[in-house]
Amino acid sequence: MSESTATLEARAPMEARLTQLSMQQALNRALDEVLSTDPKTLVFGEDCGQLGGVFRITDGLQTKHGDTRVFDTPLAESGILGMSVGLAMAGFHPIPEVQFDGFAYPAINQIVCQIARMNYRSRGTLPMPITLRVPSFGGIRAPEHHGESLEALFAHVPGLKVVSPSDPHDAYHLLKYAASRPDPVIFMEPKSRYWQKGDVDTADGGSLTGARVVRPGRHLTLVAWGAMVARCLQVAELAAEDGIDVEVLDLRWLKPIDAATLATSVGKTRRAVVVHEAPLTSGLGAEVAQLITQSCFDTLKAPVERVTGFDVPYPSGDLEDEYIPNIDRILLGIQRVLEYRRG
Amino acid sequence: MDSILPAVGTADTAPLGPGQLRELYSLMAAVRYLDTSAVAWQRQGIIPGYAPELGQEAAQVGSAYALDTARDFAFPTYREMGVARAMGVDMVAYMSTHKATWHGGMYNPPASRLAPIQAVVAGSVLHAVGWAHGQTLSGEQGVALSYFGDGASSQGDVHEAMNFAAVMKAPVVFFIQNNGWAISVPTERQVAGGSVAARAAGYDIPGIQVDGNDVVAVYEATRNAFAHCRQGNGPVVVEAMTYRRGPHSTADDPGRYRSLDNERIDAGVDPLERFRKRLLAEGEADEAFFAAAHDAARAEEEAIRIGIEALGPRPGNEMFDFVFQETTPVLENQATRWREESEHV
């Protein structure tokens, strides 16, 4: 049998593997499959069992996989993450959930001092194959501590990897990929995108390790991740009406950042705007801008621009539309870059 | 000292045989020599720092002697040298953390059944609970032995750990060495509610206090706690009341917070001397045995010192090698840059 024939036979028909799912459904399906294929996988957290999680990401998993594989924990984030360390030491693959981004703060000690360091501390003898799911970012008019963007904090910690999907297809494949890795991954789910549907090719995830150009363009690169990717795609559509051809780069991995894809994109467009919800100062946009400067300094036509949240605590729902980069602010950022003239 | 809560377990309560009693003494002597020598090594510049445990030999050796290293796992903080020694851990590898060779020590945690040394003292208490729950999920009989002190018991993680363990009936023994001092702060300014063991009642966990200077009492309490766990009854709290006779670390000056008179009165009888007198009185050992035990301890200490002095610095690339199981391009680039910019090719 030739190799091409084997490949064809191994592939499911297109209609069987292409499906429309919301990100919530995609994540749920990914967890279901991971639980089915890896008997060492455990899914747990506050309300993850019978309720299926406050966002229903774990819906039905306890019924199907049993209450030893999928279980509720007491309400204590440090406890959930500290227990994950011990379970990993015992040979399990924990997929804990912190219910909301802001509740990762009480667990920071375990995340930073323990999960991130145990492999190092033990000279590689105690790996931490933990995938920490964190419903992240704002945009759902939630109470305080339910709309935080912690990526810079996590990405700054040696020993952690950080990823954020922007659509159902990536959510499905990146979660399965993260759960199969031997290192701790902080999996930041854009909660404002949970209910958006999209095509999911369950058979072919494509490359999952780097950034992804989600819309090619010639004049400028918008760099974003998580919920901001969809907004940047909207901006690109509007900009196109004015003849501005915007490339949108979904960074996906916030640590390690795919510097090569970033360099290729901005090397072509020669202009870049980074868009993130997190506060400006010491945000990940600064890291991205530096990587672009390092690789594209000679060809850049303007300094890298940032359109971000502000250096304020994440505000109440009534103010979050003022805080999160909106279409107008991103368009203005694009305008500043396009109109830049060397002094 | 009497238990303040009912004793637990229905373990085999056969008394220790003469050979075991003598082994306990030999272990305590080995720990005593290594501990006092490590302080001297710091003064001599052989190691940069050390956390002494003078006076805690009975608590550490007695509790660790109850472990079955074929199936159990111990979770230390940074003052558990006696536990490591009693478990048979490679002591040069253990002491290497004090030589500043590698955080966590150079021993192999999965193989030795001793988790890496660490300084965030309540952090490992939750790890013990997670590991113990893993035993339940796997249907195995291992018990986690979690070491922490009166100071660590103030941290929230200890309370979360006790609650989690009680809710999940995790087979974990919370072993508190209450040595009277959290650096400079005495227990009465550290532990509300009278004792750490008393807190166990709030979680419906059996909690016992034991004389931490009596190695046999400590062993029996821990053994009973292990039996309780193995029978599927969930966690136990054992609080060993002992005394840290020396400084918190080689950088500490206990004269600033307690007097020598206080130390003499509060410390009670030296656990090693006390056990020696008991063995003599009961005819379990004679002076020749003690002399041989001390000679062996001295020889062992000497061999460990030679091993410690022979430890060279680690190759710098290890700084990058152990961050992840799967390294990243960013880290590889940094390692390359480091090689280019240093002479450590």
Helix content, binned percent of chain B? 40-55%
Low-confidence stretches of chain A: 1-9
Number of strands of chain A: 14
Radius of gyration of chain A, CA atoms, in whole angstroms: 20 Å
Structural description of this entry:
- The complex is a heterodimer of chains A (343) and B (345).
- With 343 residues, chain A is an alpha/beta fold.
- Chain A contains 14 helices and 14 strands.
- Chain B has helices spanning 18-44, 57-64, 81-87, 91-95, 109-112, 123-138, 156-168, 196-199, 215-230, 260-267, 271-281, 287-310, 318-321, 329-341; strands at residues 73-75, 144-149, 172-178, 181-182, 185-186, 207-211, 236-241.
- Chain B has a five-stranded parallel beta sheet, sandwiched between helices. In chain B, strands 4-5 form a two-stranded antiparallel sheet.
- In chain B, strand 4 and strand 5 (185-186) form a beta hairpin.
- In chain B, helix 1 crosses helix 3 (81-87), helix 2 (57-64) runs parallel beside helix 9 (215-230) and helix 6 packs parallel to helix 7 (156-168).
- Chain B is globular, with a radius of gyration of 21 Å.
- Chain A binds chain B through residues 42, 68, 73-74, 76, 78-79, 81-92, 109-110, 113-114, 118-127, 158-159, 161, 181-183, 255-257, 259-260, and chain B through 73, 102-104, 106, 108-111, 115-116, 118, 120, 123, 125-135, 137-138, 144, 156-157, 160-161, 163-164, 167, 318, 321-326, 328-331.
